[in-house]
Fold this sequence. Notes:
The structure is a single chain. The protein is mainly beta. It contains 1 helix and 11 strands. Helix 1 links the parallel strand 1 (5-9) and strand 2. The relative contact order is 0.19.
Amino acid sequence: VDSSLKITVNTSQELENHLCNQSLSIPDVIFELDTPNYNISNGNFCIVSKFTNVTLQTNNPKTATITCFQEDYPYPTTGLAFINCTVTFRRVTFINCGTYLPDNFTGFLNLSSLYYTPTHAA
């Protein structure tokens, strides 16, 4: 039995609130990205650590795109840092996002068709 909480996300503000502000305190969550485009605000590097398992996915015919807006720096200033959690992406594309997974990362990063653009960091 899957005990994950499934949350439909319709706006950038909802996605940023759930990931960056971590408005939820539940171990297993699936964020169903219901629209094709989401934005993470400039300068917001979100530390995602309250979840044990977190999934970002879409069931739409096209992939969901998460775009991180940042200043003109040679390194990412906006992105997502997943700490101490299992992360799964399904049909999600990231543009201009920095990402951080610590050296002592104990989970798994499950990727399906993830494309790194020249401005990605991993």
